[in-house]
Structure formats: structure tokens, C-alpha cells
Amino acid sequence: EIVMTQSPATLSVSPGERATLSCRASQSVSSNLAWYQQKPGQAPRLLIYGASTRATGIPARFSGSGSGTEYTLTISSLQSEDFAVYYCQQYNNWPRTFGQGTKVEIK
Amino acid sequence: QVQLVESGGGVVQPGRSLRLSCAASGFTFSSYVMHWVRQAPGKGLDWVAVISYDGSNKYYADSVKGRFTISRDNSKNTLYLQMNSPRAEDTAVYYCGRDLAVGAMSPFGYWGQGTLVTVSS
Predict the structure, then answer these.
(1) B35–A46 CB contact, under 8 Å
(2) pLDDT digits (tens, 9 = 90+) for B36-83
(3) Are B50 and A96 an interchain contact pair (Cβ–Cβ within 8 Å)?
(4) Is B88 exposed, middle or buried (0-12, 13-18, 19+ CB in 10 A)?
(5) How far apart are CA B44 and CA B38, in angstroms?
(6) What does the alpha-carbon distance between residue B32 and residue B103 come to, in Å, rounded to a whole number?
(7) What's residue B22's pLDDT?
(8) CB–CB of B105 and A32 under 8 A?
(9) Of B87, B86, B108, residue with least CA distance to A90
(10) Cα B108 to chain center, whole Å?
(11) Residues of A in contact with B62 (CB under 8 A)
């Protein structure tokens, strides 16, 4: 099983600032890496897939990068609606596995 | 638009059974791989099971293998999760999810709103 490790667990950011979230896989996932956003009481929402492709309707302030075992989600200028928990997930191997999440909170 | 609506959650005693359903609409259900993913209270996301577009292939997380069964009825556009011998640690919100695209490597493109299962005596 591929273990996904996210850091940090919590990120405190002021509105308008940049946020950088990291995700590391225990072995290469060949860019078959997705990022999801989840707000309290809601289902997750796909943000990024293929490590860097934004899903339909996702604002350009969200960007993804990385390859192999190291991936990054960047939110260029945090808006109030972006404060949430973010999960990375690999879909290169079975079982599909998620990171433990990074909570982005208001500083 | 794509809609996934789960139902069937509730309180179930350990060792009993419960069946979850996920009604799909807005897309050709029989063309897509479907999944169940769960989230224990206050915890992260945990993939549970997957079924191929035609139901011929199924795969489970080790934590539920032998106890849960995923199935689908393409004539009814419905996905199921039969939960047998549930344990307290199966308490979670259960989401059904659809692959983003048809093909081997795809993230979860669409999610239902979830249904809460509480295993308790």
C-alpha cells in the first residue's frame, strides 16, 4: 500500500496570502495524484488531478505541481472560501490512498 | 448534471447487517467505475471498495474484505454496499464516488453527500 504523507497538518494563513501544501508518497505515483478540498459538513471536491490539471470550475489561484513522490498544492491568494481541509490522493495503485489532510485556517 | 444520492445509513448493532444505496443520475451509469469512500467522525478519507463499470471486477480495502460487498444494478442506475458484521470502527459517513473519466487511472470526480452509519449496541 502506498502511504501518502501531507505536511503541515495545520497551516495558518492570512487572507490574500499564499499557501503551500505538501504531499509525499512512499513510492512513485507517476503524477496520478489528485487534490481535494473539503469544508465542514460537505463532501470532498476535486481540485487538481494529474498533479497539475485543474478540475472544471476550479479558480486559477489553485495550482498543483510535482512528480514522482513529491507534490505541492499552491493557493496563490487565499480567499475566505478557501479555508478548509485539503487531501491528496494517489490513484496510481490499488488500494487508492489519501493523505491525512492539511487544515488551512485563518491566521 | 451528475448527481449521486446515498441512502440507507443509520444505527446498526455490531454483527448485524446494513445495505447502503447510491442512486446515480445525469450520466451513463453503466460506463463508469464506482467507489465507496468513508470518513470516520473527525478523521480523514478512507477508500473502501471499487466496482468496474459492468460489475465483473471488485476490489476492497483490507479493513472490510470478507465483510462488505459492493455491487451495482445498471438497469436501476444504483450502487450498493452490503455491510455484514459491522464493527464499531466502521462508524463513518459513507460516500459513493464516480471516477472522473472512463479509463484505468482516474481520480474521484464526483461525490455524493454521504450517509452516516453508526455501529453501536
Answers:
(1) no
(2) 999 999 999 999 999 999 999 999 999 999 999 999 999 999 999 999
(3) yes
(4) exposed
(5) 8
(6) 8
(7) 98
(8) yes
(9) B108
(10) 12
(11) 95
